[in-house]
Write a structure and sequence with these properties.
By secondary structure, the chain is of the alpha+beta class. The protein contains 4 helices and 16 strands. Strands 2-3-4-1-13-16-15-14 form an 8-stranded mixed β-sheet, with helices on one face. An 8-stranded mixed β-sheet has the order 6-7-8-5-9-12-11-10, with helices on one face. It is globular.
Length: about 240
């Protein structure tokens, strides 16, 4: 493929505060860079960066993406929840049932995430971030499988999931009905060209796969804004 997933970008009113929360929960290193803003580097289990950028837009609806964090034991799940609460997280209700066994929390700016009980077979071959669970159609799962070169690891009843060939976090889409959209997505993918590939070539390939151009089209860091087949915005950064 001509590009790879570089980061998951979070809009935040206070980027440093939210980044410190996730650094504490995930045990990742936090760096501040003029080009990338506040960033968490990938952990020991690999994966992608987390990038936090300033935004004044209020959060009004549930995010279309959230993390499913894994647990190695019941005690480990309790420790993860306690650590998140100590760092400024809070319990929230999104309609979960007690028998489901996972704990639903939000970070200091209301971004939802789940702490999954130990023994989840679907997340057994992943890292601390077992899955990035997304609202989305089967078609968008197929699009991202082709765009990233990640094989499908689940494709049933309009639900899809992909995972990098080397393992790590899975990206999942739950199928219809889709959630309502309101304003700009607070969580977005950042892609970068593979070595020796020009940004324009990446954009052209993604457009051929079904992406569309997204207004305003390019941000202050030179990223080209596109949208996937479900209308989710993502960026193609210049070569690193």
């Amino acid at each position: 493929m001509t590009s790879h997933l570089f980061a998951l970008c979070f809009d935040a009113h206070e980027p440093l505060r939210v980044a410190r929360f996730w650094a504490g929960v995930l045990g990742r290193e936090l760096v501040e860079d003029p080009r990338d803003g506040v960033t968490l580097l990938p952990g020991d289990d690999g994966g992608f960066r987390l990038r936090f950028v300033p935004s004044e837009e209020p959060k009004t609806v549930q995010n279309l993406m959230h993390f499913d964090l894994t647990s190695t034991s019941p005690d480990d799940q309790v420790r993860t929840v306690a650590r998140a609460l100590e760092l400024g997280g809070r319990h929230i209700d999104v309609g979960q049932r007690p028998e489901e066994g996972h704990v639903v929390l939000a970070d200091p700016e209301g971004n939802e995430f789940c702490v999954i009980a130990a023994g989840n077979k679907f997340l057994a071959d992943t890292g601390v971030i077992g899955a990035l669970a997304c609202d989305g159609s089967q078609a968008v799962g197929y699009f991202w499988s082709r765009a990233l070169g990640w094989p499908l690891v689940w494709d049933q009843d309009e639900e899809t999931a992909i995972q990098a060939p080397g393992g790590g976090t899975k990206i999942t889409w739950g199928g219809p009905p889709l959630m309502p959209r309101a304003g700009r997505d607070r969580l977005r993918f950042d892609l970068v060209p593979a070595d020796g590939v020009e940004q324009r070539a990446v954009v052209d390939e993604l457009l051929s796969l079904g992406a569309t151009r997204f207004d305003p089209g390019r941000d202050e860091n030179g990223a080209v804004a596109l949208a996937d087949p479900d209308g989710n915005e993502f960026g193609v950064l210049p070569p690193r």
